[in-house]
């Protein structure tokens, strides 16, 4: 055997150093556990998911990250604009129904995730980059041995609990056969970062823009603090990839095609070659098991339209960390009710909104002639990520509330 093999013992092994993993690890460490994070890639690394939601601020706060993020000077986000060819519907997070944070950030994730990862290292959490989980064996009591490879070195990590925050890697869903096909139709995304010729004004930078192209194709503009922006096109794979040519040529055709992109980004510089992610929606059979819990994208992903990914990733990371704490402290934990049902209830609200978006109902509501202010505030709260606020009828009875409203505005 050429490989060097070592044994290591920790209380909790966290797989993946995205926001879900670092939030979970920071809370577990604060609660007194010996935590280790293993991360497959070298940081900084690119990942998509740049527009955050105010609700995620609670979880960054619980992890003690707010000051660190604030110091990094990321672009502040105060709302979201939805625009079609003729109209703009502006959601200002300060006019929302739910109590709580009314702003957040727009972030380049390579730098953002790296800052959080370095912060947890500073606090004394062991984080190994370029270390890939390749196998896991669970014992009857839920403890486990995880095989982690780094170059020609293999470590066997003995853990009392595993938090799988491996994002699109979906380590435990793959190894334990937990993946389920998504019930949503396959969609594709095509995106890049651009540097416009004219600097975006400070005021315009404070909101993301969602552009309606057709019912099933839309675009995003996420401005960053350094004057560059993220732009993307999302929808049916055939629709998104309708243009021929190099990736840059295809993106320039999209910029020329959509007036809101044309006026901002004609002759822009492309910071990197446009990229594609297709078939990103995913689900799992269960969110937890004996000795492990799935968090963030490892437990599933719905759709980018409402920027819900990092909010769900940090909400599940923070909650999992508190429940693992209770479990390792010998308290009884009802994982089904306190974790699965809670997380799924929030995901379901987003799913209803995603389906209403692609059916065209939400566009009708957003661009209706006389929006009712109270209803707008309630919808604004969902768009700010407050999908667990059952005082909000668009959370408590999300399905019925949205379809009834769509009928009213269409009549
Ligand atoms: C087109 C598109 C646009 C999106 N836009 C937004 C948006 O605007 N806002 C938003 O909030 N979300 C958005 N998302 C979703 C967002 O990308 C994710 O929800 C978010 O990054 C999930 O965070 P995470 O911490 O769960 O996983 P990640 O950030 O993916 O981190 C997981 C980490 O695990 C590591 N890993 C994987 N496998 C292994 C292994 N075997 N061993 C060790 N480590 C491993 C990876 O290297 C990675 O660093 C978008 C998604 C798509 C597809």
TrEMBL record:
Gene3D superfamilies: FAD/NAD(P)-binding domain. It comes from the Bacteria. One of its GO terms (molecular function) is FAD binding. It holds the Pfam family FAD_binding_3. InterPro entries: FAD-bd, FAD/NAD-bd_sf, Flavin-dep_Halogenase_NPB. Residues 9-169 form the FAD-binding domain. This is Tryptophan 7-halogenase. It comes from Fulvivirga marina. The lineage of its organism: Bacteria, Pseudomonadati, Bacteroidota, Cytophagia, Cytophagales.
């Amino acid at each position: 055997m050429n490989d060097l093999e070592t044994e290591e013992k920790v209380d909790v092994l966290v797989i993946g150093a995205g926001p879900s993993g670092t939030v979970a690890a920071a809370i577990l460490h604060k609660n007194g556990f010996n935590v280790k994070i293993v991360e497959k890639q070298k940081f900084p690394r690119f990942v998509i998911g740049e527009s955050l939601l105010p609700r995620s601020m609670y979880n960054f706060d619980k992890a003690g990250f707010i000051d660190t993020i604030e110091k990094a000077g990321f672009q502040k986000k105060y709302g979201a604009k939805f625009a079609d060819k003729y109209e703009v519907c502006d959601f200002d997070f300060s006019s929302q129904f739910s109590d709580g944070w009314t702003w957040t950030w727009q972030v380049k994730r390579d730098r953002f995730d790296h800052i959080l990862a370095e912060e947890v290292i500073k606090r004394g959490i062991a984080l190994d980059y370029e270390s890939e989980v390749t196998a896991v064996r669970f014992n009857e009591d839920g403890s486990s041995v995880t095989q982690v490879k780094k170059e020609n070195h293999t470590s066997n990590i003995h853990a009392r609990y595993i938090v799988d925050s491996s994002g699109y890697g979906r380590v435990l869903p793959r190894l334990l056969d937990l993946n389920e096909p998504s019930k949503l139709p396959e969609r594709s995304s095509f995106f890049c970062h651009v540097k416009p010729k004219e600097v975006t004004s400070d005021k315009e930078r404070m909101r993301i823009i969602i552009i309606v192209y057709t019912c099933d194709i839309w675009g995003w503009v996420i401005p960053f603090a350094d004057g560059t922006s993220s732009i993307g096109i999302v929808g049916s794979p055939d629709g998104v990839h309708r243009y021929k040519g190099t990736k840059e040529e295809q993106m320039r055709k999209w910029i020329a095609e959509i007036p809101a992109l044309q006026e901002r980004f004609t002759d822009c510089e492309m910071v990197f070659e446009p990229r594609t992610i297709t078939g990103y929606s995913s689900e799992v059979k269960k969110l937890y098991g004996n000795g492990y819990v799935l968090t963030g994208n490892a437990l599933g992903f719905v759709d980018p339209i409402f920027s819900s990914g990092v909010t769900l990733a940090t909400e599940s990371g923070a909650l999992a960390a508190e429940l693992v704490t209770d479990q390792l402290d010998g308290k009884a934990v009802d994982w089904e009710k306190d974790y699965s049902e809670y997380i799924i209830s929030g995901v379901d609200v987003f799913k209803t909104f995603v389906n209403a978006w692609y059916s065209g109902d939400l566009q009708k509501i957003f661009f209706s002639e006389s929006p009712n202010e109270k209803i707008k505030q309630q919808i604004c709260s969902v768009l700010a990520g407050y999908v667990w606020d059952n005082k909000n009828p668009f959370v408590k009875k999300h399905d019925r509330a949205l379809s009834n409203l769509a009928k009213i505005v269409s009549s």
